[in-house]
Amino acid sequence: MSYWIINLAVTMLSFVVAGVSGIFLVPFLHRIKFGQPIKTEDGPQWHAKKQGTPTMGGFMFILSTILTSMVGYWVYRLRGGLDLTEKATHNAFYEFLAVIIFSVLFGLIGFIDDFTKVARKKNDGLTPMQKIVLQVLFSFGFLIALYKFGDGSTTLDFGFWETPSLGIFYYIVLIPVIIYLTNAVNLTDGIDGLCGSVTLVAMLIFTVACAILDKVEMSFFTMALAGGCIGFLIWNLNPAKCFMGDTGSMFLGAAVTGTGLVLHKHLLLILTALIYIFEALSVVIQVSYFKYTKKKSPDHQGKRIFKMTPIHHHFEMSGFSEYKIVITFSLAGIIFGILGIITLLTFKR
What pTM value is reported for the model? Predict the structure, then answer.
């Protein structure tokens, strides 16, 4: 059986599982009063009307992705007669499993953060330091797993140029990269449907890359998550009936970053994740410029470059509807992703 047929079945099954699970999850979250606290200083004033919308909806695509990707892998393995004791097959399976576990662990960080916010009835969960400590520990564990199960390369592959072996510095560099990207995905979850749509695009791009690089096992994960995102968007497009919460966005952040690192094509990862990168960068630029101008101005009044950050709020404050922002950012993600695929094909080794 062609793995593309299995992948199509995985995508459809994940879509159904995620979409149908919302029928039970959303009323349950309403019943236990797991509503999202809204801080108006973190978004436009009109977002206050979203107060109380159920959060932790990310469980829809988390469960569907884990379940259907594993089903897809085992069907592929059994139909293809793959021998798990063979080193290449063994390593590919454990890389696939490492990404799933890595994503779940980051989702767990998000869940603790969400649960704390709901319990306290305010938008303050884990402290930044608590999050970073957990993220560093889980990231370090993930990199060790990749090293142990097949990816011993310590070079950075930018397509047109591959660095010499960096040794231990490779891992030192990647830890902050992982933390930046996972939190950048978290920042992208600011308006209805945005993070799910952009991640859907990223997973489709990664699926094409998996086909080019013969990473069959990882394609089951990327397609399962793509299907899960579509199922979740039924509940999350404006006006959202449910938010993914940090539970979902942290899972997605680790999924995007982990998949890119397993493929070991760093330029592809950067281009595919460029929307997330710009979202986080807009916050860094805004805060830095505000602090600098506040310090330099005689009246100690800081200035801003954007109307509000992350940058999707700037577009929202400029009159873009939430649907228009989702479509614009998703189209931009497609363009950047296609560019990544072109560079992958051009500089394939």
Answer: 0.93
